[in-house]
Write a structure and sequence with these properties.
Keywords: Membrane, Signal, Transmembrane, Transmembrane helix. This protein has 258 residues and is mainly α. The chain has helices at 2-21, 31-48, 65-74, 79-108, 113-141, 164-183, 188-208, 214-235, and strands at 245-249, 252-256. It has a domain at 66-239. The longest helix has 30 residues, at 79-108.
Length: 258
């Protein structure tokens, strides 16, 4: 009986040690650099959104048959409902969900308030950079919206390409999920799944709301998602060695994934 108990106790100690040592993986965050970058890109994103700077005339004024057919197939009878729903998703539900998911993951897996703060800075940085790129594209291409004559938003009739709501949604969802993956949070797959579903819903609602052409939404998803992944992965990934290490643990050795 004692011979059987010893391996069981040793295994339990190894498991407990590995759980106790589990911590969120580090991110490379330097507040002296990242906070000014966040402030600068946030200010530029807000500035580019000013109606006074919007193009007064369209450069891309006519859509092709593909976009016209997609508009006819996906537009709702009351497009305003879809537009309002997309506003609620991208401005309320998604940011609140992203913050809640990262907070729960950080505090539930041995993180600290600084862990959550760093996560938030990296995600916000990705979103403001993606929004800045989007603003530049809108003013450069000056594409006329599908329902430009019906939309009452000032300065937005010629800012259809590419979809800002979609870019924002995908940059937020992808950056949040990428940070969760880099941290090693167990909830990362769920964050990916939920984020992609909600972001795709935003894109669909922009077409259903007659605010964008389908190609606006497709490019917005690719551009926003690309920035949302690249900013955390390229600029904030800490240098960690690969492979598996054997480290001392009570009762023997344990596997450690650096």
């Amino acid at each position: 009986m004692r011979r059987l108990a010893r391996p069981l106790v040793a295994g339990a100690l190894l498991l407990a040690a590995s759980v106790a040592q589990a911590q969120p993986h580090p991110l490379k965050v330097d507040l002296k650099i990242d906070l000014p970058v966040l402030a600068l890109t946030g200010a530029s994103a807000l500035g580019l959104a000013l109606p006074q700077l919007a193009p007064s005339k369209c450069r891309l004024c006519v859509a092709d048959d593909f976009d016209q057919d997609a508009r006819s197939a996906l537009r709702w009878k009351d497009p305003a409902i879809a537009r309002h729903a997309s506003d609620v998703l991208v401005s309320g539900i998604m940011p609140l969900g992203a913050a809640s998911a990262l907070a729960l993951a950080a505090y539930g897996e041995g993180g600290s308030p600084r862990t959550f703060m760093e996560d938030g800075i990296v995600v916000a940085e990705a979103v403001t950079i993606a929004t800045t790129f989007n603003g530049l594209a809108k003013d450069t291409f000056a594409r006329r919206r599908p329902a430009a004559g019906d939309l009452s938003m000032p300065g937005s009739r010629n800012k259809s390409f590419y979809s800002g709501h979609t870019s924002l949604a995908f940059s937020l969802a992808t950056a949040t999920a990428t940070v969760a993956t880099m941290r090693g949070y167990r909830s990362a797959p769920w964050i990916w799944a939920a984020g992609m579903v909600l972001a795709t819903g935003v894109g669909y609602l922009r077409v259903a709301g007659d605010a964008h052409w389908l190609t606006d939404v497709a490019v917005g998803a690719v551009a926003g998602g690309g920035v949302g992944f690249a900013v955390p992965w390229v600029f904030h990934r800490a240098n960690r060695g690969g492979g598996v290490e054997l480290v001392p643990a009570p009762g023997g050795l344990a596997l450690h994934f650096p």
